[in-house]
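Many introductory courses stop at the sequence. We go one step further.
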Amino acid sequence: HTILGKEMQEVLIKGKDILPETAVRCLEVALMNAKCQTRGYILDGFPLTKQHVELLVEKGIIPFKLFELECDVTECTIRAMKDRSDLNRPYPLPDSPEAISYKNAIYQSEIMPVRQWYTEEHKNWMTLNAKSNKWL
């Protein structure tokens, strides 16, 4: 019910992506919450680009740890194909083998400078093997 929340809702209803600047503004608001300050927080899929890192640095937000789940494209494709048949799936996703391969290629090109920056600057980047179990 905030101005920021209404702004985000309008963008999402139109089917557009949230701008990185807006995502960081939301993160700033969340970080002011006492629970977040004492218990910590988890961001799924952020930061993904060098622009995200620059915005976080500009705001003085330094994640304590960043975990990259390592899983090859073949395994991701197999999991996506299994998820397709899940009747409880909340919404349709573009998860064809071609789409997954394309998303992975973009991810690999975008994440390299992010991984390098956090590894060198803060030594807080960790890679975990996610192939054995998608929930482990």
